[in-house]
Design goal:
766 residues, seven-stranded parallel β-sheet, five-stranded mixed β-sheet, flat
């Protein structure tokens, strides 16, 4: 197994001690206490043996194969070439070491090991008085406990939040003790849902992954779909990541727009088993998690865990682990080169005394007295490398949000290269205490922003006047390294400012007059609007994102244009008809605006010469004539002229064409009770495009065996009704015709008379 290099003698000693402890704890009860506490219970031992399978093993043969060897197949992870087995109930009882040794000799098995324990990397300590914690004057979020979250300013979150708030499609799997998503400062919307199960049938494994209704993660401790947190550890980790920020409540999360998947493998004592960890890693992989946060440790190595992490690494998943607490070396899985091992610093930026030390350490983050969300809707300070890891996971998620073009390793490189060497006086450069240094999220995002493209295009010909709204079209993208295509960046923060009038000399501009912050949507677009200053003059429009700053001089006029939009006629018939629209732009003194001017025309009906209903053109000299074609739909066309937010609107009536079709019932049936049968005929008049005709037209009716009342009617708004009576002597279907004189609109239908017979009962008298 490949791990980072460390002292051979020290490593052999540590592994020997850890392995002996591991085997003892894995098969004896009581067992290891995961997160020491005065009232903590012990953890029952697992009877599972984890085995690595030979590549190409047929899954259909596993159950029979192991049964023939005296074992029962309990779990199979084909993606990792791993399985969990236990002795058959009828098998003779042997020691754990004997069973592991026996399993390791099987022909389909590469290795065998006991199902050891996993524990939360937490140091239990008395809660500190929040009033004793030094506060920072920076109060960007309005969360009331933010002033006590020394960790966030320490890792430069203010700068980070000025660059991105994160993309909700970036997903962090929290493999821990679950998450209390009903906490007041967390929310279910922060959990990335399993879409197939969310839209599936209750009680059915819709995605066929072995877990029923796993909409918001899974709980391997209780084997159900409710990964609620009974320990508080996972909730604390989740709060550091995605607590709702700037909501006037509780604490701030480092990356509130990211999404999490709660995967519970640690029980109410903070302990769990390797087999469940492997299952959770497999689940995170199949659910598409970008990042896996492992605020937990193994006290000894596990081939099974390593096999799983290698597979995640091969699929570009970032696994953030911890160095561990109060131990002689960096614990597993932080040891593996395929993970990012996180140590802890305190509020003084010094290595936390409990944080394990070793050459496998990659980076450090605040972990001593970290304030975050806790179970039962509360908050607490807690210490341990467990609480440093989520800040690194959050930082990676924010960089990934900003740079979807980067690979996992490129993102890790940015985090390591921008880390601050806070212990350079004692240990300059990379060291086993803090690795590359203490995390700086702001610096990492500034570095990442170098590859972001900010496109500002205020169209030429825009007319800007005092007090008018200025629409600012911006798009934020990165370039896909494979295809060269532009990838949208969602959640990017773009600052827009209008700087006071440009002076005549070369002096610097004065402070911003108007400024606002906007966020890019899922398409990378920023649709921002700012009010222009109330004084005319030359201003500078500044657009800033990360290391990028764009400026554009804008000329704000003293008054808006006088716009005129006039139709040649106000009514026209649909079909081949068209209306000429005259556009005029004048200054306030009545003179034509002779400069180039960008205008937009929009219509709700009909179309312009290019076939569109929205047309943007440049005019010169202040005059333009445009043609609006009617099309085939009757109604009122609302036509709008827009010049840099200044609007004029007119209405043109598109009238239906001449009658071309009469429609009515397909059959008329009337009952005759002795005086004939009367039926009602309701007709509708349409033009050849299917528009109901509005103008009045006469309709004449004809028949050979009945009488109409009246014989001719006037259709109003395309509708008419007439009564028709069939004489009692008429036999068989009676044809009826209706037509509009001078048109081809004709209607024909058959009327049928049904004679109604009355029967009187025979009355016999005595």
């Amino acid at each position: 197994m490949q791990t980072r290099l460390y002292s051979r003698l020290g490593a052999l000693f540590s592994v020997a001690v850890a392995l002996a402890t591991f085997l003892l704890l894995a098969f004896q009860s009581p067992s290891l206490e995961a997160a020491p506490s005065s009232n903590q219970e012990t953890v029952n031992a697992s009877d599972l043996i984890l085995v690595g399978l030979m590549p190409g093993t047929n899954p259909a043969e596993l159950s029979t194969y192991f049964a023939q060897q005296g074992f029962q197949l309990a779990e199979h992870w084909p993606a990792f070439d791993l399985a969990a087995i236990r002795p058959l109930p009828s098998a003779a009882v042997f020691s754990a070491e004997t069973m592991v040794a026996a399993a390791s000799t099987l022909s389909l098995v590469r290795f065998a090991e006991a199902d050891g324990l996993v524990e939360a990397a937490v140091v239990d300590a008395a809660d500190r008085d929040l009033s004793s914690v030094d506060t920072n004057p920076w109060v960007l979020p309005n969360d009331p406990l933010y002033e006590n979250q020394w960790a966030l300013p320490q890792i430069n979150m203010e700068t980070a939040w000025n660059i991105t708030h994160g993309n909700p499609t970036v997903v962090v799997a929290i493999v821990d003790s679950g998450v209390e998503v009903t906490h007041e400062d967390l929310m279910l919307a922060s959990v990335y849902p399993n879409g197939i199960e969310l839209n599936g049938q209750p009680g059915i494994d819709d995605d066929d992954n072995g877990y029923i209704d796993d909409i918001y993660g899974w709980d391997w401790v209780d084997d159900d779909n409710d990964p609620n947190d009974l320990y508080g550890h996972g909730t604390h980790v989740a709060g550091a990541l995605v607590a709702v920020t700037n909501n006037n409540l509780g604490v701030a999360g480092a990356s509130p727009n990211l999404r999490i998947v709660p995967l519970r493998i640690l029980d109410q004592r903070g302990a769990g088993f390797i087999s469940d960890l492997v299952s959770a890693l497999d689940y995170a992989r199949t659910q598409g998690a970008n990042i896996v946060n492992l605020s937990l440790v193994l006290r000894s190595d596990s081939n099974s865990v390593y096999e799983a992490i290698k597979r995640l690494y091969a699929e570009d998943v970032l696994v953030v682990a911890v160095t561990g607490n109060n131990g002689p070396r960096v614990y597993w899985p932080g040891v593996y080169t395929e993970t990012v091992a996180v140590a802890a610093v305190n509020a003084g930026d010094a290595h936390a005394s409990f944080s394990n030390v070793g050459p496998e350490t990659d980076i450090a983050a605040p972990g001593d007295g970290v304030l975050s969300t806790y179970r039962d809707n509360s908050y607490r300070e807690w210490q341990g490398t467990s609480f440093a890891a989520p800040y690194v996971a959050a930082a990676a998620g924010l960089v990934w949000s900003l740079r979807p073009d980067l690979s996992r390793d490129e993102i890790v490189d940015i985090l390591l290269q921008t880390a601050v060497d806070v212990n350079a006086a004692e240990h300059p450069g990379f060291d086993p205490y803090l690795g590359h240094g203490r995390l700086d999220v702001g610096a990492a995002l500034m570095r990442a922003s170098e590859g972001v493209h900010v496109h500002l295009q205020l169209p030429a010909g825009s007319y800007l006047s005092v007090g008018q709204p200025l629409q600012i079209p911006i798009r934020v993208t990165v370039t896909d390294t494979q295809s060269g295509a532009a990838l949208p960046v969602q959640g990017a923060v773009v600052d827009v400012a209008i700087i006071s009038p440009k002076p005549s000399d070369a002096e610097a501009f004065t402070a911003a007059v108007i400024e606002e912050r906007f966020y890019s949507d899922e398409s990378g677009y920023v649709v921002g609007t700012l009010p222009l200053p109330d004084q005319p003059g030359l201003y500078t429009l500044m657009v800033t994102h990360g290391v990028h700053s764009h400026s554009l001089v804008i000329d704000v006029k003293a008054s808006p244009l006088a716009l005129s939009l006039t139709p040649e006629v106000t009514e026209v018939q649909v079909g081949d008809g068209a209306v000429a629209l005259a556009v005029t732009a004048e200054t306030q003194d009545g003179a034509l605006f002779v400069e180039d001017l960008l205008i937009t025309l929009q219509t709700t009906l009909g179309h312009f010469p290019d076939g569109s209903q929205s047309r943007t053109v440049m005019i010169s000299g202040g005059v333009l004539t445009e043609t609006l074609s009617t099309g085939t739909v009757a109604g009122i066309a609302e036509v709008e002229l827009n010049v840099s937010g200044q609007k004029q609107q007119i209405s043109v009536l598109f009238k239906p064409g001449v009658p071309a079709r009469l429609e009515g019932p397909s059959l008329l049936v009337g009952r005759d009770f002795g005086s004939g049968a009367t039926v009602e005929i309701e007709l509708h008049v349409y033009d050849r495009y299917g528009n109901q005709v509005w103008a009045p037209y006469p309709i004449n009716f004809y028949s050979t065996g009945g009488q109409f009342s009246p014989a001719s009617v006037q259709a109003l708004n395309g509708e008419a009704t007439v009564s028709y009576t069939i004489g009692s002597w008429v036999q068989g279907p009676q044809p009826i015709w209706a037509m509009i004189p001078g048109t081809f609109a004709v209607y024909r239908v058959d009327a049928i008379r049904l004679a109604h017979h009355r029967y009187l009962p025979f009355i016999q008298s005595d």
